[in-house]
């Protein structure tokens, strides 16, 4: 009765909340059939090495092309897929397809794949990855898994053991969205990550903000001292790149280099121009 009253109260003062709940439920229901209906695609965004001045890998970013909702971005549906457990099946689809795709890349760049916490707990994760490696013959050294801090918050012992398992196979592990969660520094001790991805919120106004410059500098130096490389996310301007270069960042990722592009756009670009940095800048429209 208390619950019903609670909902009634909400509906009375904030009718939009009920509307949003309904929409969320519908979105979640549609998401359930989306895998069978083949509504997902993978986009790839270059990871550009600042020293080598070339693209050395691509991050896999999933998109949902819903006949009802249009293109839905992962920020909207990944949390829903997490709540409903659907992320396990979707994540498996993503891993298989991304590795399959990457195994065909002529220049053998790395492929980075985002993992969500629930996936990490699934007994299907390890076999999915080993099966994909065996089926494609890809060098495991080309696979990079991106995890976030919250994965080390719960089930941390089990998850760290899993990360070591991947590491033994030759797979690389990156810590994503660094600096946005809790007690980040402590997590750096829990596993020797290959790479730290500095969240775009620190990069956004780096030219103007001394606090962001200081934070990026500290993270970069800390990473170097720990033997980890760094990636700056969300680099959109040359002036940001200049700052990041000055701080000794290893790689950058962002619209300055390229929007995330789909598999056919990616293959259309081959053979690449010598200056990939320029080639990958798709002027004007967002490729999504
Ligand atoms: P993320 O892993 O931190 O991915 C980076 C996000 O930043 C992507 O958003 C990318 O499109 C966006 N981005 C890249 N360059 C720029 C830039 O220059 N400026 C700005 N403003 N943004 C930029 P996207 O594709 O919407 O993905 C959002 C998040 O959804 C990802 O954040 C990741 O946490 C999650 N996600 C995406 N694909 C997957 C997936 O396959 N599996 C899982 N578990 N999560 C995924
Ligand atoms: Mg990521
Ligand atoms: Mg990130
Ligand atoms: Mg992010």
What does this structure look like?
- The protein is an alpha/beta fold and about 290 residues long.
- Helices cover about 50% and strands about 20% of the residues.
- The chain is built from 13 helices and ten strands.
- The protein has helices at about 1-15, 15-35, 75-85, 85-105, 115-120, 125-135, 150-155, 155-170, 185-190, 210-225, 240-245, 265-270, 275-280, and strands spanning about 40-50, 55-65, 70, 110-115, 145, 170-180, 195-200, 230, 250, 260.
- It has an eight-stranded mixed β-barrel with strand order 1-2-4-5-6-7-8-9, surrounded by four helices.
- It is globular and about 50 Å long.
- The model is unreliable at about 1-10 and about 270-288 (pLDDT under 50).
- One magnesium ion binds near residues 176, 177, 197 and 233.
Strand content bin? 15-25%
Number of helices: 13
Bound molecules: ligand C2E, magnesium ion
What general form does the structure show? globular
Largest sheet descriptor: 8 strands, mixed, barrel
Strand tally: 10
- Rg over alpha carbons: 20 Å
Oligomer: single chain
pLDDT < 50 runs, ≥5 residues = 1-11, 270-288
Strand order of the largest sheet: 1-2-4-5-6-7-8-9
Alpha-beta content class:
alpha/beta
Average per-residue pLDDT, rounded, comes to 88
Distance between the termini: 46 Å
Protein name: EAL domain-containing protein
Domain EAL: 24-274
């Amino acid at each position: 009765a208390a619950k019903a009253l609670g909902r009634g109260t909400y509906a009375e003062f904030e009718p939009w909340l009920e509307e949003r709940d309904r929409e969320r439920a519908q979105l979640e229901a549609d998401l359930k059939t989306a895998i069978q209906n083949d509504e997902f695609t993978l986009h790839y965004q270059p990871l550009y090495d600042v020293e080598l001045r070339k693209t050395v890998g691509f991050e896999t970013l999933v998109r949902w092309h819903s006949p009802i909702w249009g293109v839905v971005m992962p920020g909207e549906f990944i949390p829903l897929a997490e709540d409903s457990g659907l992320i396990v099946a979707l994540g498996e689809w993503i891993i298989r397809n991304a590795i399959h795709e990457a195994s065909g890349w002529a220049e053998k760049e790395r492929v980075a794949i985002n993992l969500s916490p629930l996936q990490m707990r699934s007994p299907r994760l390890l076999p999915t990855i080993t099966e994909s490696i065996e089926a494609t013959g890809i060098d495991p050294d080309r696979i990079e898994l991106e995890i976030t801090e919250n994965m080390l918050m719960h089930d941390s012992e089990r998850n760290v053991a899993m990360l070591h398992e991947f590491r033994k196979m030759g797979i690389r592990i990156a810590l994503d969205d660094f600096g946005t969660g809790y007690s980040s520094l402590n997590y750096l001790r829990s596993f020797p990550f290959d790479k730290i991805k500095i969240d775009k919120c620190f990069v956004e106004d780096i030219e103007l903000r001394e606090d962001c410059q200081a934070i990026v500098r500290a993270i970069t130096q800390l990473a170097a001292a720990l033997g980890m490389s760094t990636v700056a996310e969300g680099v959109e301007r040359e002036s940001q790149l200049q700052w990041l270069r000055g701080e000794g960042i290893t790689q950058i990722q962002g619209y300055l280099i390229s929007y995330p592009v789909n598999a056919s756009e990616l293959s259309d670009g081959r053979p690449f121009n010598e200056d990939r940095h320029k080639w990958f800048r798709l002027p004007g429209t967002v490729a999504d």
